[in-house]
Amino acid sequence: MSDQIKYLLDESRMPKAWYNIAADLPVPLPPPLHPGTLQPLGPSDLAPLFPNAIIAQEMSTERYIDIPEPVREVLCQWRPSPLFRARRLEKLLGTPAKIYYKYEGVSPAGSHKPNSAVPQAWYNAQEGVKRLTTETGAGQWGSSLAYAGGLYGLDVTVFQVRVSYDQKPYRRALMETWGARCIPSPSPETEYGRAVLAKYPDHIGSLGIAISEAVEVAAQQDDTKYALGSVLNHVLLHQTIIGEEAILQMEMAGDDPDVVISCVGGGSNFAGIAFPFIGLGLRGGPNAKKRRILAIEPSACPSLSRGKYAYDFGDTAHLTPLVKMHTLGSDFTPPGLHAGGLRYHGMAPLVSHAKELGLIEARSVHQTDCFAAGVMFARAEGIVAAPECTHAIRGAIDEALRCKAEGKSETILFCLSGHGHFDMASYTNYMSGKLVDQEYDEKELAMALSMLPKVEA
């Protein structure tokens, strides 16, 4: 029907495989390096942190990797997720553009994160792992892994960035309800955490520090592995179920996006919706139309827009391998913006590589502009988005207004990666005028970039 709002795929049409963009890239991804030897990593280098199946996925160049049936059975609780046409928002904006959004807030944790948490927990359980450690910013990943770990009888310890731990107490409560232990980071529980606190007792924390703490604990215990919610190839792989579903749903709508938009911090939900569409273009054929792919990031932490494309550590303690990515420097601490899931110093290597190849565009936006867009969206479409997702909404609205100014009827698709029900304090601050735009320290950024590892090209 011409006024259809939502497009729902039957469970039987849920994708049976994840899409791996590495198979279609015109130039291979630069390999991760061992921090000691600066030589490309082998599977044995990752064995202390990840199960074998995850390591294989991390290094795979196969185009499609089958989703295990037990994992699909769990994903079916909320997948396929709905695709919506934002007709009321279109009318409010007075735009000739058509706006669609893929809504990932229907999962138990309220975001896209369980798409990777469930397979990661399952693969670990299959290989006899008993405990998982991880980090989380806003808490969407930490709560997702808590949920997934509970499904498979795994003990989960989450190091949550201190500023988000304080800002979002109900995310912490959700993790604990699902059986996980949540610790504010930096913490006195690890050698690295104690070192940070000794120097900066009131440190607000960062994802880089929280990663260091989680990796330190996992590396010291034989029955414990580390699980990561973004950045690495296997996480982005798991999230491509979003875009694979969206392709089918856009076909149901008789439409095809001219512009694909998502917020970007570490890169997981962005890759999830964008990579399958980029893959269509790379492979050619009837679906290879020219699409613009927009990554929207916070102005306070603009790794794609302002960062340097270089080899860097994924964590602050320099315990992780070196990966080539857009980075603000592993020693850089972003301001305490409310979009805690976007406060990461680096960008996923695959997303960074895609930008270097000219496959995507990056745009940075201020948080007050994002919240204004989030409120507009909520009043038109009824969904209160997580602060991270308001960046994507801002991008979609700006593109729709561009279409209005240019008199173009383009099709816009964006990923609404989670709801904001645990983030209402930030909306309250916005409504009362207490939310302000935050700027990073240029001197701190310059210092962090000057400390990048010396790796010859």
TrEMBL record:
Keyword terms, alphabetized: Amino-acid biosynthesis, Aromatic amino acid biosynthesis, Lyase, Pyridoxal phosphate, Tryptophan biosynthesis
Pathway this chain belongs to: Amino-acid biosynthesis; L-tryptophan biosynthesis; L-tryptophan from chorismate: step 5/5
InterPro entries the UniProt entry points to: Trp_synth_b-like (IPR006316), Trp_synth_b_CS (IPR006653), Trp_synth_beta/beta-like (IPR023026), TrpB-like_PALP (IPR001926), TrpB-like_PALP_sf (IPR036052)
Family annotation (Pfam families): PALP
GO function terms (MF aspect): L-serine hydro-lyase (adding indole, L-tryptophan-forming) activity; pyridoxal phosphate binding; tryptophan synthase activity
Top-rank taxon, per record: Bacteria
E.C. code: 4.2.1.20
Cofactor list: pyridoxal 5'-phosphate
Tagged with keyword Lyase: yes
GO cellular component terms, A-Z: cytoplasm
Reactions that this protein is recorded to catalyse: (1S,2R)-1-C-(indol-3-yl)glycerol 3-phosphate + L-serine = D-glyceraldehyde 3-phosphate + L-tryptophan + H2O
Modified residues (N6-(pyridoxal phosphate)lysine): K113
Domain Tryptophan synthase beta chain-like PALP as annotated: residue spans: 79-418
Family the entry assigns: Belongs to the TrpB family.
UniProt subunit comment: Tetramer of two alpha and two beta chains.
NCBIfam families in UniProt: PRK12391.1 (NF009057), trpB_rel (TIGR01415)
Record's function text: The beta subunit is responsible for the synthesis of L-tryptophan from indole and L-serine.
HAMAP family reported for this sequence: Trp_synth_beta
Name the record gives this protein: Tryptophan synthase beta chain
Species classification: Bacteria, Pseudomonadati, Pseudomonadota, Betaproteobacteria, Rhodocyclales
